[in-house]
Amino acid sequence: MMLSSSDFESASWELVVRVDHPNEEEQKDVTLRVSGDLHVGGLMLKLVEQINISQDWSDFALWWEQKHCWLLKTHWTLDKCGVQADAKLLFTPQHKMLRLRLPNVKTVRLRVSFSAVVFKAVSDICKILNIRRSEELSLLKPSGDYFKKKKKKDKSNKEPIIEDILNLEGSPTTSGPPVSPGLYSKTMTPTYDPINGTPASSTMTWFSDSPLTEQNCSILAFSQPPQSPEALADMYQPRSLVDKAKLNAGWLDSSRSLMEQGIQDDEQLLLRFKYYTFFDLNPKYDAVRINQLYEQARWAILLEEIDCTEEEMLIFAALQYHISKLSLSAETQDFTNESEVDEVEAALSNLEVTLEGGKADNALEDITDIPKLADNLKLFRPKKLILKAFKQYWFIFKDTSIAYFKNKELEQGEPVEKLNLRGCEVVPDVNVAGRKFGIKLLIPVADGMNEVYLRCDHENQYAQWMAACILASKGKTMADSSYQPEVLNILSFLRMKNRNSASQVASSLETMDMNPECFVSPRCAKKHKSKQLAARILEAHQNVAQMPLVEAKLRFIQAWQSLPEFGLTYYLVRFKGSKKDDILGVSYNRLIRIDAATGIPITTWRFTNMKQWNVNWEIRQVAIEFDQNVSIAFTCLSADCKIVHEYIGGYIFLSTRSKDQNETLDEDLFHKLTGGQE
Question: What pLDDT sits at residue 601?
Answer without folding.
Answer: 87
